[in-house]
Amino acid sequence: MAEDLNEDVKNLQKAILPKNDGYGMAAFDRMLNPIYRGAFSNSDGYARVTGPCGDTMEIFLKFDNDRIERAAFETDGCGSSAVCGSFAAEMAFGKTPDELLDVTGDRILEKMGGAPENEQHCAFLAGETLQEALSNYMIKTTSGSK
Ligand code: FES
Question: Which atom of ligand 1 is nearest to the CA of 57?
């Protein structure tokens, strides 16, 4: 019963939300449920970056044995930035610092299945913030302040 209602609500949201040509289905589904949102304390790597559009993205990383065990994002930006932050956090899970270097704006766009041209900068903001959070972790690690 509750599952039927959830499915009805989901279908209704899909019908009401604007049809944005260029968004992949993965991105569209994530818009309805931008998982991994929410700041957490005691992160090992953190960054806050403001994009050219004026929106801000934050990424929080927690490592265990040099692999990401927890990742999260926060943003004050558009729905698209929440989708991109959510994918950036998801793609970080389980990765080593070296592997994390591959999680760029282009990779986030691929994972989303695409985005309209005027929203693609949101993915680059998420990718840049993730890389800055990694740099923050690397600086702490090499300086011994972690
Ligand atoms: Fe600024 Fe999406 S419009 S991050």
Answer: 4
> How many whole angstroms separate alpha carbon 76 and alpha carbon 50?
10
Spatial CA neighbour of 141 closest among 105, 74, 96, 102? 96
Q: How far apart are CA 85 and CA 132, in angstroms?
A: 13
pTM: 0.85
What pLDDT score was predicted for residue 63?
Answer: 98
pLDDT for residue 16: 47
For the chain, list the domains and their CATH numbers: 20-143 (3.90.1010.10)
Q: Which amino acid is at 55?
A: D
Closest listed residue to residue 75, CA positions, set 37, 26, 121: 37
Q: Name the phi and psi angles at 38, rounded to 5.
A: 130, 125
Quote the mean pLDDT of the chain.
Answer: 90
Closest approach atom of ligand 1 to CA 55:
1
